[in-house]
Amino acid sequence: MINKKFCITMSGFVIASLMLTGCSSMFGNPMKYVISQDETRQEQTESQNDTGNNDTSSDEQILSEEDNENHGIYILGTDKMSDYSVSGMLKAVKEINENIDDDKTKGIILIGEEQYIDYISYFISLTVEDKKPLIIIKNLNDDTKQAALISQVKSYINGEAESLPQDCMVNKNVSDVFDVSSVKTLPDVDIFYDYIGANMDELSKKIYISNGMVIIPSTAGADISSETYEIISQKNIAPVVITCSKDVLDTKIKDNSADNIYYTDLEPYKSRLMLMFLLNKNSDSDSIKNALIKAD
């Protein structure tokens, strides 16, 4: 017979191995996880195009919960919204907009994983009008606490409470809302970290296959290497957004002479999403420049 202690030891080893490999990619860097999910979705879309199967109308719908106790308050939980890729978010937003436009809807409660709350909130602020309360709360991983939090948010939506519990996020439009009702996919925008020793071959490749690029400098002054600038300032290159602090934004904009390079003090994930929506709208250079400056 196999030694029981040996089995327990091996089981622990296997679980630890899984945690260090497959599971770590999601929690180590949420932004990298989101981008990797987008790349996977892109490959699936290309595969569908190759086989002539690009019909997403039959995709499984995100079902919203409404019962007699909710009285027009829709709850979208993590069991129904677990795909945080751009494709997954587009699908969720379309479902949210359908519910928002329903006269019976008083408000929506959206439950998301904590590490993606800011990302979810910004995506929704760009795609869902704030004409009705849409409250984003984090998944507490505790049924009792989650139910209590949902109850408090319901009271706020129903006008029975003047304020929301801490850490709840209310959808507020910070810029024009982009119409995504007929959008199936968004332009591909990648992120590149500029630092000493960065892979310039990778940047050279991505700059040509992507529809846009976000560059994250490693210096406080948002200075990028001469090699990076040489690559991104070539003619017929896709739009490039360089992130910087508010302190140097005006100077960078004033000194910038490249037609395809833009500066913004938006966080990288916000810059990426904003550029995606602007490119999808076929925005001109001035529109891109202005949107990246004022959209926070």
Question: What are the main properties of this structure?
Answer:
single chain, 296 residues, alpha/beta, Rossmann fold, four-stranded mixed sheet, four-stranded parallel sheet, 11 helices, elongated
Radius of gyration: 22 Å
Number of alpha- plus pi-helical segments:
11
Identify low-pLDDT runs.
Answer: 4-28, 44-68
Alpha-carbon distance between the termini?
64 Å
Residue-averaged pLDDT, rounded?
83
Chain-wise SSE layout:
Layout (H helix, E strand, L loop, with lengths): L3 H17 L3 H5 L1 H22 L21 E4 L9 H15 L6 E6 L4 H11 L6 E5 L4 H15 L11 E2 L18 E5 L6 H10 L2 E5 L9 H7 L7 E4 L2 H10 L5 E4 L3 H13 L4 H10 L2
Parallel strand pairs: 1-2, 2-3, 5-6, 6-7, 7-8
Antiparallel strand pairs: 3-4
Helix pairs in contact: 5-10, 7-8, 10-11
Describe the structure.
Residues 45-61 have a biased composition (Polar residues). This protein has helices at residues 4-20, 24-28, 30-51, 86-100, 117-127, 143-157, 200-209, 226-232, 246-255, 268-280, 285-294; strands spanning 73-76, 107-112, 134-138, 169-170, 189-193, 212-216, 240-243, 261-264. By secondary structure, the protein is α/β, with parallel strands linked by helices. Among the domains are: 73-170, 3-Layer(aba) Sandwich (Rossmann fold), CATH 3.40.50; 189-294, 3-Layer(aba) Sandwich (Rossmann fold). The strands form two sheets. A four-stranded mixed β-sheet has the order 1-2-3-4, sandwiched between helices. It starts with a helix and ends with a helix. The model is unreliable at 4-28 and 44-68 (pLDDT under 50).
